[in-house]
Amino acid sequence: MNSHASRRSPRTAGFTLVELLVVIAIIGTLVGLLLPAVQAARETARRSACQNKLKQLGLAMHNYMSAKETFPSNSWAPKAGTTWYTWEHFSAQYALLPMLEETALYQKCVIAMSATSSGTMYTLVRGKVAAFSCPSDVGLNDPNWGPSNYAWCIGSGIYTMPSRDSATGFIHSEGRGTNSDNSGGSPRTEQNSSWPGYAPSDFRDGMGSTIMASEILAGDGSGSGAVAKFPQNIVLGASDVFSAITTKDFPTAANITSMGTALQAGTTWHGQAGRQWGWRGCYSSTFNACVPPNWEFPSGGNSSPGQMYDGGYGAFPPRSRHPGVVNTAMVDGSVTTIADAIDPLTFQQLANRKDGVKVSVP
Hints:
- The protein is an alpha+beta fold.
- Helix content is 29%, strand content 9%.
- Strands 5-1-2-8-9 form a five-stranded mixed beta sheet, covered by helices on one side.
């Protein structure tokens, strides 16, 4: 009898190295196929949540209008007798706070309007308010700032702080009067009694054919001199091609190209967009529609303000993290999506409440 054979252990079943590598490769392939689907499902959920937030903002606007007979303006001055600068105003978001279950914050803002200085106001408008934040935007990570991802349409043109008469969109940013301590003028009065917003009758093209609000992106939080981070940050002090545009309410295709070229060549960037929901400046609480959504060129303007964005002219279109579209609320309260590839003129017409051209979202 062979003693060696009697001591041999039976062969244990297991994977060979080749089999193990094949299994790992299969798992890797499955994960690679599954991950995009999971990410797409998550983005679909985030986009749906974003649309719901816009719906709630539209409802808040209509509740305000029902009570006041007009929509709010985007410029709310402090009480007379303060020493705030003349350009320091709250945005329309301030007026909507009670309709968004933010009554306590609203009362703090009311008290701040009577404060001698504007310091308290700045603290409040930089706080986080869930209603103004899109779940898809991850641009602003500074805990000291409150994201502002939803903004009101000021019109079809290149204006960034339009008056009540010149604004062509849903809202205007006109203030009234001046502070005697800062510029020698007469003390201003509260915005809500002096410069109202627009009433339903002001939307000559129909409330269902006019844009109320859409999305903007938060910058990286840095001030003037920020890095060139597209599309989060904006360009300041670009070559002033804007003043030469003759059809400022409806820039042509050639105008759009010249604006894009000037902004692309800009070297001074600003990262404070979308970080102060209560500030009346463009890209804090408003946008314009002179160029298409998610424009291929940087957003920006022809001057260098200290806050977002209180310059004269600029291109500040809606922007989002949703691939290919921006969520948009119409003045009638309906919510839709507008594709990046929309014809620029059609987009301008949707943003203009009084041009006499009634168009629908494609």
